[in-house]
Amino acid sequence: MRLVILSVVLFNIILLLNVRASVPDGTTPLMPAPLGVTPTDNTAIDRSERSTTSADTSASPRTLSGSTDTNKSLVYVVPIKDAIMDRGLAYFVRHSVERAKEEKAALIIFEINTPGGAVGGGEEYTIGICNAIDKASPITTVAYITHWAWSAGALISISADKIIMKQVASIGSAEVVGSSEQHQEKYTSAIRAEFKARAEKKGYPVNLVMAMVDKEMEVKEVIIDDEHLFLTTEEIIEQRNRGKVVEEVKTIISSGKLLNLTANDALKYKMASAIKEDRSEIPPLFGIQDYIFKETKPTWSEHLVMFLTSPLVSSILMLVGIITAGMALKSPGMGLPEGIAILCFALLFFGHYLVGLAEITEILIFALGISLLSIEIFLLPGFGVFGISGIIIIFISLILAMQDFTVPDIKDAPWQLTTLKRNFITVGLSFSLAVTILILFVRYLSAIPVFRSLILVVEEKSTSGFITRQSDFSNLLGKKGVVFTTLRPVGKITLLDSDNKETSQTLDVVTEGDFIERGDRVVIISTSDNRIVVEKDKS
What we know:
Layout: H1 2-16, H2 55-58, E1 73-81, H3 88-102, E2 107-114, H4 126-134, E3 140-150, H5 152-157, E4 162-165, E5 170-172, H6 181-202, H7 206-211, E6 219-224, E7 227-232, H8 233-241, E8 247-253, E9 260-262, H9 263-268, E10 274-275, E11 291-295, H10 300-308, H11 311-330, H12 336-354, H13 360-379, H14 385-400, H15 415-444, H16 449-452, E12 480-483, E13 490-496, E14 502-510, E15 521-528, E16 531-536
Parallel strand pairs: 1-2, 1-11, 2-3, 3-4, 3-5, 4-10
Antiparallel strand pairs: 5-9, 6-7, 6-8, 12-13, 12-15, 13-14, 15-16
């Protein structure tokens, strides 16, 4: 029962390590103000038309911890760099936003330089970063693109209230790559909807944003009633059918290509609000003249979460945890395997708990699986309902701990099915490899010097007083017993005396292939060497 107790310890460890801060609910995302700039004037952004006033941010400025100047507004700088393939990045961005809100920052600048990465994937990847930016309201958010904002970087950028770029920067090229044409179409449709929704929310040119995802779109710049618009061919035809005079200025992107905008193009097409070469030029655009930057960097705990949730480390923790748990079940009482198993699974669940994937529910399910497996091994020896159920439940809990959904939403979030398949393969391979290693471990353990001290290896010699004796069970022929553990076909029986009453003697027996349930009566039909064969008593 030691693993049962240790599983409870694991549950309590996770509870004690619950350090996730909660973001207040009920806040309304701040809609972006009108761009307020033209391609010939990118020196200031009008803040007078914002849906909320600047009194909350500029009238009560905050300073960095330890600063003696209490009159400076606090401007947070959150870097989002390199390929977005790390589950811990969303955790880092979310915590940075939470800290900025706690310190009442006047502005949050997300410095973006990424070639892209996992656009879908749920809360642990790009969608999680975008949702974290949404929760920054009522603080104004700026996506400052220093070089690349491609693919996932484009989606993150349009989640901010404003986009400001360096002269060498570019944004776009968010093509979705699927394993098949049908699979890719589902992905493209879902991601296109995500791009469209965020562009509409923040006031960016919707068709231009969607052309970054869908290479089948053709977008043209047109003038209708002295207003510059970006319309598809179908929309132009529709406007003309309504009697509108449509003047086509130029084709921005032709069908068959993905849109990628330079800084000048983004400014011209009102995707970007300004072009600035240094971050110090950004706060004045929002009326913040006296300010101090606070550049966030991952703390040691955030680095730890990123490390623990990386696919390689997660797989290793799972593999080592399963192997040492198997060792503990095979040879209970050693202490070391149990401790290593608890540590591995605690780190696995802890890391995924912090990034928002594993919850208390998954930890409870895992503890239930361990408990069922322990009952099968220690209380009801054999390999039946409890054992199989325990293994299945442990398998399911590990899969659920690596994703933020239970049942994949194939229609609106097709990437969830891919995530489920990937997690199923990861857990399945870990289980298979662990079983293989355990078999080799048990077979060749004594040959490994580091483990030799854990095994009792004694050479039994007659000169040392040992006597070899072949057991004789011939006297048991015809005797009856009651099944103590279900025979599948091996198990134990309790021998009956001449009055058909149970004795204290138990025997290891085997049937000829039949399964006999616990409590049924059997009769011994043959013995050979140390093998006792029984069949169900029909009398």
